[in-house]
Design goal:
The protein is α+β, with helices and mostly antiparallel strands. The protein contains 17 helices and 18 strands. α13 packs antiparallel against α14.
Length: 481
């Protein structure tokens, strides 16, 4: 609990109207996309780096946790106040400070919503490619903290590839600037890359300089229908081998197709799998690449390849793709959503292995995601009121992670570690690597006040971390207000 002295000082720093302490106000900042509740002791709505600095300096002297938060759309519990404390919300730091059309850069505050930023950039004929499913409500600060990706990562990369520099408040309260506004820069350590994807554990981003690219002249969307899931997975590698890099290359399995069609009514076919593919670039290049993609899909067993006609059809296809996760609750009331990544050539082995795990444990496991860069969302469906099924789901996640590492992959491509994957860290990283990371955390945050309990939680929290992730998808809180 915070003392009255601390509460009064918080109100002095941000203004009484920007500090919340009431139970009902705290509830709104007690959860992220996991729907697991951890109530903070206060929420403050900051408007400057100086305010963040003063709060962090006080946290170090008074010993309370501080948790940075954007829109709360993360899937691994990264913004959960698991030890209470003060949530710093950056949602009111939502200014687009500059869009530089000559140098192809933009300067933004962390509370800018990704979709709104993309619309402003595109008005000027420019393009900011990262596009996580949460793009209509997630903020750029949160995207930076988690190194968000999305379907376009296969061609354009992820958030870290577009962050040139940052204004960051360190856990001890110092305000620093990292990176450059130029195409090159190798002065000192790359603190920008260290901050991107650090899940709000090493600093609070208060401003970002982002790289932009020219808006593609043309785009074409294709839907390839496959009677066999493995053939669809193999076709992914075939397309890349042909030296065609689509802007998106999404795999959707039969379970996901059935659920999302019932949910979204987008006119999707009944099939074992589909590939949702977009190519972009010059008009001539798009026509040529589309023809190559269609030919390769047919060679690998597609029963049809259809080109979307008109903006409405394209919009409906992507609306359906982004609705898959929510639609899967038609199968079972609970799910564990994991975002593993393997080398593209290993996708067929991953898909085959996941199917074997599902059959052996008598579970439904839906697979979809960014196959173009090897990032598959593995969704283990189960009913937590059935103890045997809940245990099987837990076993399935462990087996999927082990299979992923065996295939030289990673257990998280874009969701981060947070609290839900902390117990699995040692599956992928050697003890020496984990200890090195802990030393970095301790150097930046000697008093352990910034976003504690994430990535490297205490042993008790680590043992319970799986249930945070498992209950996340059920909407049932692990702790109540």
């Amino acid at each position: 609990m915070l003392s009255e002295l601390v509460k009064n000082e918080l109100k002095r720093i941000v203004g009484t109207a920007n500090a919340a302490f009431a139970r009902e106000e705290l509830l709104c900042y007690s959860y992220d996309a996991t729907n697991t509740l951890y109530p903070p002791d206060a929420v403050v709505f900051v408007k400057s780096a100086e305010e963040v600095s003063l709060i962090l300096k006080m946290a170090n002297s008074e010993g309370f946790p501080v948790i940075p938060r954007g829109a709360g759309s993360g899937f691994s519990g990264g913004s959960l106040p698991v030890e209470g404390g003060v949530v710093i919300s950056t949602e009111r730091m939502n200014g687009i400070i500059e869009i530089d059309t000559e140098n192809l850069t933009a300067v933004v505050e962390p509370g800018v919503v990704l979709w709104e930023f993309q619309q402003e950039v595109e008005k000027k004929g420019l393009f900011y490619p990262p596009d996580p499913s949460s793009l209509r409500f997630s903020t750029l600060g949160g995207n930076i903290a988690e190194c968000a990706g999305g379907p376009r990562a296969v061609k354009y990369g992820v958030t870290k590839d577009y962050v040139l520099g940052l204004e960051v408040v360190l856990p001890t309260g110092e305000i620093i600037n990292t990176g450059v506004r130029t195409a090159k820069g190798v002065v000192g350590y790359d603190l920008t890359k260290l901050m991107v994807g650090s899940e709000g554990t090493l600093g609070v981003v208060t401003k970002a300089t982002l790289k932009l690219v020219p808006l593609p002249e043309a785009t074409r969307t294709l839907l390839a229908v496959f009677p066999d899931l493995k053939d669809a997975a193999t076709a992914v590698s075939g397309i890349i081998k042909a030296k065609v890099i689509p802007s998106t290359l999404e795999l959707i399995d039969g379970v996901s197709l059935k659920c999302v069609e019932e949910y979204a009514k987008a006119g999707l076919p009944e099939a074992e799998a589909v590939l949702l593919i977009e190519v972009d670039g010059s008009r001539e290049g798009v026509v040529k690449d589309s023809e190559v993609v269609e030919r390769i899909c047919m060679e690998y067993g597609a029963q049809s390849v259809k080109s979307a006609t008109g903006k409405d059809e394209v919009r409906d296809l992507w609306k359906a793709r982004r609705a898959i996760s929510a639609s899967l609750f038609r199968v079972k009331p609970n799910k564990i959503n994991e975002d593993v990544v393997v080398p593209r050539a290993s996708i067929p082995e991953l898909i085959g292995g996941v199917r074997e795990i599902a059959d052996r444990l008598n579970l439904t496991i839906a697979c979809f995601g960014h196959a173009g860069d090897g990032n598959i969302h593995v969704n283990v469906m189960y009913d937590k009121t059935n103890p045997c099924e809940a245990k099987a789901a837990e076993d399935a996640v462990t087996e999927v992670f082990k299979l992923t590492v065996e295939l030289k992959g990673t257990i998280s491509g874009e969701h981060g570690v947070g609290v839900s994957k902390a117990r699995y860290l040692s599956l992928e990283l050697k003890p020496e690597a984990i200890e090195a990371m802990k030393r970095i955390k301790a150097a930046f945050d000697p008093n352990g006040i910034l976003n504690p309990g994430k990535i490297f939680p205490k042993k008790a929290a680590e043992e319970g971390a799986y249930m945070v992730g498992a209950e996340a998808a059920s909407g049932v809180p692990a702790t109540g207000l």
